[in-house]
Amino acid sequence: MDAGGSMRRVDGDVGGRARPEPSTAVHGYVPALDGIRAVAAVIVVAFHARIGFVNGDLGVDVFFVLSGFLITGILLRSGSNGHMNYAAFYRRRALRLLPAYFAVLVVSVVSDRIWDAGGTLKGAFFSFFYVSNWAAAAGIGMGLMAHTWSLAIEEQFYLLWPLTLMATLRWARGRRGATTGAVAALLVGANISVLVCWLAGASVSFTWNSTLSRSTELLAGGLLALIVSYWWQPGGSRTSARAIGASGIGALVALCVVGNIDVVNPWVEILLQWPLVTVLTVTLIVACISSATNPAQRLLATRPLVSTGKVSYGLYLWHFPVFVLLDSIVGLEYWWPRLLGLVITAVLTTASYRYIEQPFLRMKQRVPVLHAVRAATDADGAR
């Protein structure tokens, strides 16, 4: 899972008005946001490794909110008068996301031919076109590529959200309230769609994997980015920042550790836990970008978490095939295959970041783009 990490000022004029200057709290790279990404990744990996975090799939929800926040920040800085260089934006996204993604796809297909994890070839087909979430909604097994449902949702969001946001900016003509209100209305609409699925008796699988349903979390992050960009005031209470950060990280971890109550009724997670995780993630982001230093911010900005956050995309990509294969070959009932899986995942993630992702990241910096887009994405090292 991947999210941009830099926020810088881009001057411009929107509809004849001075464009609102993004908050100074988010001009530069915020290490603690990589820490949030690391926490989410560790929760998901531990969940699939069967090491605690029985509700660890909620880590994906954290990723969605953070991704919506960061990608919206990039778009706000890239667009001027509601216009942006879409070709450059998508080329840079492709150079960041596709190399490791396709490497995992190829390795998974080859591994499946050797050890037969079942369904991987179909999964590779749907993953290649970034529609694996809809395949999962239809009940199609995808073997070692089953985890790409979340990446498909994010990719679909990347395709639709820039167009939607730029159209909104052009319509609003620099009116901050109108822009924020329009995105808030989209968020409300997305939440209503989830309620409609429940009331109409839609399947849990469809709602779980639907891009529209999951846009509740992505749009929540996007709305926060707008609020921060347009309304954020530097400063704030140190006590409030401390309380918000501590409660956010504590509640998130606790929620992922407690019993998986959605086994009794899967709609509990969709209707109650998704919104709760969204709110908690928003509070963590606010604590991380706050100018009032707080323990959660310091913890999330520690070197181990920041380093893990920077490679979290590869970590998410590689860990799932490793643990599914180990489970099918020797099982994960004992500690030794779990630890072996963690070691293999760490090696693959490190090698992927160094030899696959970083060369393409350097290529990304050489893509000729408009100054506005380059300024918005140059420090985008984690995405």
How would you describe this structure to a colleague?
With 383 residues, the protein is mainly α. It has one domain. 71% of the residues lie in helices and 1% in strands. The chain has a two-stranded antiparallel ribbon with strand order 1-2. Helix 1 packs antiparallel against helix 2 and helix 2 packs parallel to helix 6. The longest helix has 31 residues. It is globular, with a radius of gyration of 20 Å. The termini are close together. The C terminus is likely disordered.
Please sum up the structure shown:
The chain has 383 residues and is mostly helical. A hairpin with a 2-residue loop joins strand 1 (13-14) and strand 2.
Task: Spell out the blueprint of helices and strands.
Layout: E1 13-14, E2 17-18, H1 31-48, H2 58-78, H3 86-115, H4 120-128, H5 132-137, H6 149-172, H7 176-199, H8 204-209, H9 211-231, H10 238-257, H11 267-289, H12 295-300, H13 303-310, H14 312-329, H15 335-365, H16 371-377
Antiparallel strand pairs: 1-2
Helix pairs in contact: 1-2, 1-11, 1-13, 1-14, 2-6, 2-9, 2-11, 2-16, 3-4, 3-14, 3-15, 6-7, 6-9, 7-9, 9-11, 10-11, 14-15
Shape: globular
Helix content: over 70%
Average of per-residue pLDDT values? 85
Please count the beta strands (DSSP E, at least 2 residues each).
Answer: 2
Q: Give the H and E element order.
A: EEHHHHHHHHHHHHHHHH
Low-confidence segments: 5-26, 370-383
Roughly how many Å apart are the termini?
9 Å
Query: Strand order within the widest sheet?
Result: 1-2
